[in-house]
Amino acid sequence: MNKPFLADRIDGKGYAADLVEKLTDEVAEIKSKTGLTPGLAVILVGEDPASGVYVGAKHRQTLAIGMESFVHRLPFDTTQTELMTLLEELNAAPEVNGILVQLPLPAHLDTNAVINAIDPNKDVDGFHILNAGRLATGQDALVPCTPLGCLMMLKDRLGSLAGLHAVVVGKSNIVGKPMAQLLMAENCTVTVAHSKTKDVPALCRTADILVVAVGRPELVKGDWIKPGAVVIDVGINRIDRDGRSRIVGDVAFDEAGHASAITPVPGGVGPMTIACLLANTVTAFKRQHHIVTNQAAVAV
Ligand code: NAP
């Protein structure tokens, strides 16, 4: 007999809708207080279809909350110098408060050099080396959007995270490492696992909070999850099953019914990522203009 599925589904779509509504109000307040409109510039190099879809979604959602959106679509053969020149212009443009370069870049471009050429105060992806350093040392940083969204959902679900054991599987610069830093800042005891870690299942079984950001479909099985744990599944993997193409996470969702809560894929972490990008743009604007709003949308 199948075990009952008792875990709550963490509704990332609902969290994102709530955050977007608050940001819409905050942007309206900013406009009436300053007469200015926060603006986000997004640069896309090349024609990667998935990146094109993400950039389109960012553009629409930026406009929908009342901000300005500046999309720069550059040809695949754009040179490093051309890209750096555009970044210099955007860094200096007062109407641009946030800058995002859609990754991955074509292989002939130096991604680290490009990211580090963004003004760190406009780096709304939070990938600039200064923002990574600020986050690691507990200073005000622009924080990468995906882990920021994960943290918001965890805090809403659990309240204080202090003293809990968090296991983060994956140590990428964009998800795993900043996620671990954020959880440490919340006084969790944090363990980071990766491809060379011995006995990842045994480690996962000790986690009160399990965040998985690997990119392997359904890697984490039900018996890797401690009963009552909160599971955040960051993975997005396209697979073929029963003759149909579908998206699954890094966790075998159907086996996780004994967790206390889990994010579904799709509909969990993904929707929060764009909402947090908008939130970071509002945060960047407020820091650049030294203003405080009455209805701040982001509490973490
Ligand atoms: P990444 O840069 O490829 O990093 C993957 C990490 O997983 C690496 O640290 C790697 O270890 C580790 N790993 C690989 N195989 C493993 C295994 N068998 N056991 C334990 N660890 C293993 O990936 P990423 O950019 O962090 O993305 C991870 C996933 O999240 C992808 O599916 C991506 O599409 C998704 N994602 C989703 C969102 C969203 O908005 N929902 C945003 C970003 C990413 P090593 O370091 O040792 O190689």
Automatic annotation (TrEMBL):
Keyword Ribonucleoprotein attributed:
no
Question: One Pfam family for this entry, by name?
Answer: THF_DHG_CYH_C
| Record keywords | Amino-acid biosynthesis, Histidine biosynthesis, Hydrolase, Methionine biosynthesis, Multifunctional enzyme, NADP, One-carbon metabolism, Oxidoreductase, Purine biosynthesis
* Superkingdom of this protein's organism: Bacteria
Q: What is its pathway?
A: One-carbon metabolism; tetrahydrofolate interconversion
Record has Ligase as a keyword: no
Name a GO CC annotation attached to this entry.
cytosol
Residue ranges occupied by any Tetrahydrofolate dehydrogenase/cyclohydrolase NAD(P)-binding domain in the UniProt entry: 144-288
Residues forming the Tetrahydrofolate dehydrogenase/cyclohydrolase catalytic domain are: 10-125
Q: Where does NADP(+) bind?
A: G170, K171, S172, I236
Q: What is its EC number?
A: 1.5.1.5, 3.5.4.9
User: Which reaction does this chain catalyze?
Assistant: (6R)-5,10-methenyltetrahydrofolate + H2O = (6R)-10-formyltetrahydrofolate + H(+); (6R)-5,10-methylene-5,6,7,8-tetrahydrofolate + NADP(+) = (6R)-5,10-methenyltetrahydrofolate + NADPH
Which terms in the Gene Ontology molecular function aspect does this entry carry? methenyltetrahydrofolate cyclohydrolase activity; methylenetetrahydrofolate dehydrogenase (NADP+) activity
Q: Which Gene3D superfamilies match?
A: Leucine Dehydrogenase, chain A, domain 1 (3.40.50.10860), NAD(P)-binding Rossmann-like Domain (3.40.50.720)
Q: Quaternary structure?
A: Homodimer.
What NCBIfam families is this protein classified in? PRK14186.1, PRK14188.1
Q: Of which family is this protein a member?
A: Belongs to the tetrahydrofolate dehydrogenase/cyclohydrolase family.
Tell me what this protein is called: Bifunctional protein FolD
Species assigned in the record = Pseudomonas laurylsulfativorans
